[in-house]
């Protein structure tokens, strides 16, 4: 097991009817910006709960945060923050809204000419940010309990991430009932996003960390059980609660302590989304099996462990078990209504640009830092058919 340091200060408030606790959690005085997406929180009643829980507060609203939040939209929010002297941000929504608010929080106090300048080095230059809180309505990214944010710049067709302890939420409210009205597509995407988050910390190479392995496998098994159930029974509280908490556990740093990481799937997926507009989770479902097929020899020990512990695959030779584990994973994604090949989304041309963008934004990738442009091209070929 590698040396590690782990600190997570986020105050999690979990359960039904917990949005009312905003009354105690929000600053009593000051200027608060309420940030949300396309308006679903007004249709499902979450907006009314938030407003009711914040009597006497000065709330400035900013809506319209897109899936894959855009830099151009977020910079308009930064202008409002500065003009209205906002000193606390409240994100109400899913990972895109939370990620967007994290960028706003850091950009509002950025001393340089352009906040995008802190993106290429993944936020290492961020020194301060406005405080923020979260009301989660879409379990997927784990952004409610981590320091990470992913932002798309439409003008340059770039999708980059940054991380900073300065943008850790002060609190996150997780009420599973807010997820009852999610469209099936968003429920499926959330389960896949969380599943692949686990894999980027688990499907690497043995590191003498049996506890972290078993914690990761528990999250995977929960997602495999709860994802399809949530689609079939969207108003089942226990299922929604399991899915929400599993997605948070997938990327709050705990299962990644002391083990190698491999974020190749996410990095390639980001470029596909930026270039072709596919849903983030869709790109992950396409790329993950291809990465495994390309790196199966390096990942053989963990693939065999995964096959046995998660899917119960213990018969046959090693190659057969690895093949079966990859196929089971693809079938799980497909059971959620998500296809696993680029051809299924009519993405056929200009694929060389994906590897080019990966090279631009930072190679090599992988737990062994051995995935270069040629490897990315091979992986993309495996994503085609």
Summarize the structure.
The protein has 385 residues and is of the alpha/beta class.
Reconstruct the topology from this structure.
Blueprint: E1 11-14, H1 22-25, E2 31-35, H2 40-43, H3 46-52, E3 58-62, H4 71-84, E4 88-93, H5 95-108, E5 132-136, E6 148-153, E7 158-163, E8 171-174, H6 184-202, H7 210-232, H8 237-250, H9 264-276, H10 280-294, H11 300-311, H12 318-335, H13 352-361, H14 373-384
Parallel strand pairs: 1-8, 2-3, 2-4, 4-5, 5-8
Antiparallel strand pairs: 6-7
Helix pairs in contact: 4-5, 6-7, 6-8, 6-10, 7-8, 9-10, 9-13, 10-12, 10-14, 11-12, 13-14
Verbal overview:
- The strands form two sheets. Strands 1-8-5-4-2-3 form a six-stranded parallel sheet, covered by helices on one side. The protein has a two-stranded antiparallel sheet with strand order 6-7.
- The protein is of the alpha/beta class.
- The protein starts with 10 loop residues before the first strand and ends with a helix.
- The model has no long low-confidence stretch (mean pLDDT 97).
- The protein has helices at 22-25, 40-43, 46-52, 71-84, 95-108, 184-202, 210-232, 237-250, 264-276, 280-294, 300-311, 318-335, 352-361, 373-384; strands spanning 11-14, 31-35, 58-62, 88-93, 132-136, 148-153, 158-163, 171-174.
- The protein contains 14 helices and eight strands.
- The chain has two domains: 11-178, Rossmann fold; 184-384, Up-down Bundle (Dehydroquinate synthase-like, alpha domain).
